[in-house]
Amino acid sequence: MAVLGAGYGGLRAAFGLARDVRVTLIDPADSFTERVRLHERAAGRQDVRHTLRPLLRASGVTHLAERVSRIDTAASEVHTDDGRVVGYDRLVYALGSRTGDPGPARPGRVFTAETAAELHRRLHGEFGRLTVVGGGPTGVETAAELAESHPEWDIRLVTAGQVAPGVSRRGRAHIRSVLTGLGVAIEEDHQVPDADDLDSDVVVWSASMVPNTEIAKAAGLTLDEHDRITVDPALRSTSHPEVYVAGDAAAAYTPVSGPLRMACATALPVGLHAARSVVRDLGGLEPRPLKFSYYAQCISLGRHDGLLQFVGRDDSPRDRILTGRAAALVKEQIVRTTVRTIVMTARSPRAARLIPGVN
Ligand SMILES: Cc1cc2nc3c(=O)[nH]c(=O)nc-3n(C[C@H](O)[C@H](O)[C@H](O)COP(=O)(O)OP(=O)(O)OC[C@H]3O[C@@H](n4cnc5c(N)ncnc54)[C@H](O)[C@@H]3O)c2cc1C
Prior knowledge:
Blueprint: E1 2-4, H1 8-17, E2 24-26, E3 31-33, H2 38-43, E4 49-51, H3 53-59, E5 62-64, E6 68-72, E7 77-80, E8 85-87, E9 91-93, E10 97-99, E11 110-111, H4 116-123, E12 129-133, H5 137-149, E13 154-158, H6 169-181, E14 185-187, E15 202-205, E16 209-211, H7 214-218, E17 229-230, E18 243-245, E19 250-251, E20 253-254, E21 258-259, H8 264-282, E22 296-300, E23 306-311, E24 317-323, H9 324-347, H10 349-354
Parallel strand pairs: 1-2, 1-9, 2-5, 9-18, 11-15, 12-13, 12-15, 13-14, 17-19
Antiparallel strand pairs: 3-4, 6-7, 7-8, 10-16, 20-21, 22-23, 23-24
GO molecular function, one term: NAD(P)H dehydrogenase (quinone) activity
Keywords: FAD, Flavoprotein, Oxidoreductase
Pfam families: Pyr_redox_2 (PF07992)
């Protein structure tokens, strides 16, 4: 049994499987990166990575610290950059996503969440104009965090539509007011074709998230129009049922929630469900359909403010919101609980199966 990717979805799946199956987890990193804190990393926070070794030891999962280069579905083999070949009977594909391409850019000027540490070094001890591109939750969180931690930088947030289109009118008004209070200039309805077009010393590109599904595509797995792998209700690839998919790479769907958005909040329960499905499948039972519904979305606005947007089961925003320090505290607790859940599930196979994860 192989699990590809040691992010939220992959770890949740690997630890959920470890009691019943021998699991090889393939990811070049020797630590788990809290991607939901990468904007904090850009602002100077250090502890966003957690070494995998104690978790792997506790769970019995074998780690192959290599990059997956291709999957041979006919031979049921995963190939790595270093020439290693790992056979599988079932596979969990959880290679996540990355920031969309900002286009060609001069070196040292354009950054993304993936280059958060370099961005921090670039900002430290300097000042100038910085533009965050993208008004979704990642762009909003990044602009707020950088404005709070680096007030010497002149920051603007540029977005093609309106800021935080997924939240309620009241929620959006709160986001606008906090960003403005932190000195962030907001430019809505501004389409930026590529990062080098902007008159800015530093650009942080947060315009889109792209699923890491090139390897799946090359292996012949069916993708949807957003390049996510199409899956059945039990999270099996619709074209290759021996491949289960978790996290941002999966076009997962439930009748109650509709299509699941790319989020840590969805990757954890989906990763767990993929594990449960594989165990039933290997035991000769029909895997059950995923059950999932939303109840809130959390957006941090620096370290002292935030937005807790209550949503319907289908992720549509309600009027009800929580803001200010209370929302910042809730968001921080949720992010901490995410890591605690992963640690607990590595240590306890029973917890690995029972705790559904946090939204
Ligand atoms: C700044 C920021 C803030 C965010 N805030 C939130 C938030 O508040 N709430 C929320 O719900 N979501 C948030 N998200 C989104 C969330 O981080 C992702 O949706 C989540 O990480 C998806 O989990 P995953 O397991 O699918 O992928 P990931 O966590 O990205 O893990 C993928 C893993 O696959 C590995 N990998 C990739 N390619 C290969 C390869 N070829 N071979 C082997 N391994 C490979 C990577 O090393 C990585 O370990 C945020 C994202 C960003 C960037």
